[in-house]
Amino acid sequence: GAVVSQHPSRVICKSGTSVKIECRSLDFQATTMFWYRQFPKQSLMLMATSNEGSKATYEQGVEKDKFLINHASLTLSTLTVTSAHPEDSSFYICSARTSGAYTEAFFGQGTRLTVV
Amino acid sequence: AQSVTQPDIHITVSEGASLELRCNYSYGATPYLFWYVQSPGQGLQLLLKYFSGDTLVQGIKGFEAEFKRSQSSFNLRKPSVHWSDAAEYFCGSSNTGKLIFGQGTTLQVKP
After folding, report:
1. How many CB atoms lie within 10 A of CB A90?
2. What is the pLDDT of residues B39-69, one digit of tens each?
3. Cα distance between residue B56 and residue B42, in whole Å
4. I want to staple B4 with a disulfide (CB 3.0 to 4.6 A). Which of A42, A106, B87, B102 is the partner?
């Protein structure tokens, strides 16, 4: 299957700083990318959907000013957690697919963010 | 609005026994449905998907799922579970441009 690379896999940052997570589709053009947050022993909570060249669509309750998503090209999307706080500590996963709601979405390996 | 529900949070089966993981969806038209598996510390891997045609779908690793419109269900099955099947399983739906998941089911396999 296609490969989605997510970087970094782990990051520790100080409270108040910002951290950027990258999601790249290595061998296909990702028209749509999804960003999820996963709490321990819990499901994947969709944070936002981004289409290349468009502004991301955020889910209800997700602060768009805190979680900045950029999908500037067909192979790269970034999630920036701004002014991070300990409660932002979580596992963040990106997913990418080509056009079509019935097409398979490929997932990155996830990023474990710890804010201290 | 679309939604997905996995009623079973945790299931334990003996190795070699059969398995069925439940998934119910809510969507007005024909849904696009998926089953993904997540092993500890890893990303999600697609097991199978349904969007039209034969309602019994075959997937990888010996899994299958059956779409039943009358019951709004898309249950995942496997006739004989292996210890390596222990993982987290997610049922997903993608119809409104976004891919959402149920709560997930943790599968534990007893020797």
Report:
1. 20
2. 887 789 999 999 888 999 999 999 999 999 9
3. 28
4. B102
